[in-house]
From TrEMBL, chain A:
GO terms for biological process: negative regulation of oxidative phosphorylation; respiratory electron transport chain. The lineage of its organism: Eukaryota, Fungi, Dikarya, Ascomycota, Pezizomycotina. It comes from the Eukaryota. It holds the Pfam family Complex1_LYR_2. Belongs to the complex I LYR family. This is Mitochondrial zinc maintenance protein 1, mitochondrial. InterPro entries: Complex1_LYR_ETFRF1_LYRM5 (IPR045296), ETFRF1 (IPR052000). GO terms for cellular component: mitochondrion.
UniProtKB/TrEMBL annotation, chain B:
GO terms for cellular component: mitochondrial matrix. It comes from Tuber aestivum. It comes from the Eukaryota. Its main location: mitochondrion. Its cofactor is FAD; AMP. GO terms for molecular function: electron transfer activity. This is Probable electron transfer flavoprotein subunit beta. Keywords: Electron transport, Mitochondrion, Transport. Coiled coil: none annotated. Residues 26-231 form the Electron transfer flavoprotein alpha/beta-subunit N-terminal domain.
Length: 79, 268
């Protein structure tokens, strides 16, 4: 029950982050959705936890991507 | 250690990723229908004040985010609170009155002086400049008006007792300044980013759950009339123009061609 909630939470977080994805939300959302749907039948709690771990990793990567993009743009303008 | 009450002034500006367009009368940059977000240098200020709290614990009593801008600047302040500010103060400017909107740096500094006095702040951390006007004056003027010390373009901030030690990046090395509290600090690009490499450290992003939580934090709203400050315009914008398009470079066929071209330009 709580795992189900956790998966939904990370999915929502990712979608929220995806709004600012450089290639656009329309690029991000279907891919994110597909990535989750491909694992939808997973019932082993251990595997689900692994999936959540992976989603957390992707989330961190996206945040880092945004930070780096902003940093580079600013560095170009302000040195 | 002296307990800190930190004021972080924030400006809502055109998003850094947007290419600004000049309006038809060449008096300003078009802002309608353009994505707006928090000035990136102000994000660094918020981040640094939250980190000061993490490093120094309860010594940081209060982190107040302040903004003077249109009603929508409230969203920017919510973001600031999602990133870790405790509360926010918005001075709402009337968009229909041209003398109110687009406050000049001096007017903002005077406004901040009043806020500092009313709220009893003893440290102001502001961005070194905003990416729309690029004046880079507010922090310095505020320090002058308050009679406080200032440390500008901080790349590292440490509080030691009743002093702040600030490291700045200068040509060919680092400059370290020591300033007594109360003080004004302005942030440079690589603050919170040791080794100049941003991925290496985790900067917090205003995540969805944090934004929801920030809705419960207090936000006070005031108007310019609540402050006994003169906001007369002192500067006149003569013209706003886009930068000239870049001149393309030329290609040379051979080494001889390159040498003769360089000689032509007087480079060798």
């Amino acid at each position: 029950m709580s795992l189900r909630y956790e998966v939904k939470r990370i999915y929502r977080d990712l979608l929220y982050l995806g709004r600012e994805y450089p290639l656009g939300y329309d690029y991000f959302r279907p891919r994110c959705h597909q990535a989750f749907m491909s694992q939808a039948g997973e019932t082993d709690p251990e595997k689900v936890r692994e999936g959540i771990q992976q989603a957390e990793y992707v989330k961190k990567e996206i945040e880092a991507l945004y930070r780096l993009k902003k940093y580079r743009a600013l560095k170009q303008s302000y040195g | 250690m002296t307990s800190l009450r930190i004021l972080v002034p924030i400006k809502r500006v055109i998003d850094y990723a947007i290419k600004p367009r000049v309006n038809a009368t060449k008096t300003a940059v078009m802002t309608s229908g353009v994505k707006m977000s928090m000035n990136p240098f102000d994000e660094l200020s918020i981040e640094e004040s939250v980190r000061l709290r993490e490093r120094n614990g309860d010594a940081v009593q209060d982190i107040l985010a302040f903004s003077a801008g249109p009603a929508k600047a409230a969203d920017t302040l919510r973001t600031a609170m999602a990133m870790g500010a405790d509360r926010a103060l918005l001075v709402e400017l009337d968009e229909k009155r041209p003398e109110e909107i687009d406050l000049e740096p001096l007017a903002v500094a005077k406004l901040l002086r009043e806020v500092v006095r009313q709220e009893g702040c003893n440290m102001v951390i502001c961005g070194k400049q905003s990416i729309d006007d690029d004046s880079g004056q507010t922090g310095q003027m505020l320090a002058g008006l308050l009679g406080w010390g200032q440390a500008t373009q901080a790349a590292k901030v440490e509080v030691q007792g009743s002093e702040v030690v600030v490291t700045k990046e200068v040509d060919g090395g680092e400059e370290v300044v020591r300033v007594k509290l109360p003080a004004v600090v302005t942030t440079d690009l690589r603050l919170n980013e040791p080794w100049g490499f941003p991925i290496s450290c985790q900067r917090r992003y205003a995540t969805l759950p944090n934004i929801m939580k920030a809705k419960k934090k207090p936000m006070e709203k005031k108007t310019l009339a609540d402050f006994n400050v003169e906001f007369r315009k002192r500067l006149e914008t003569v013209e706003v123009v886009e930068p000239p398009p870049r001149q393309g470079g030329g290609k040379v066929d051979s080494v001889d061609g390159l040498i003769s071209r360089l000689k032509e330009l007087g480079a060798i």
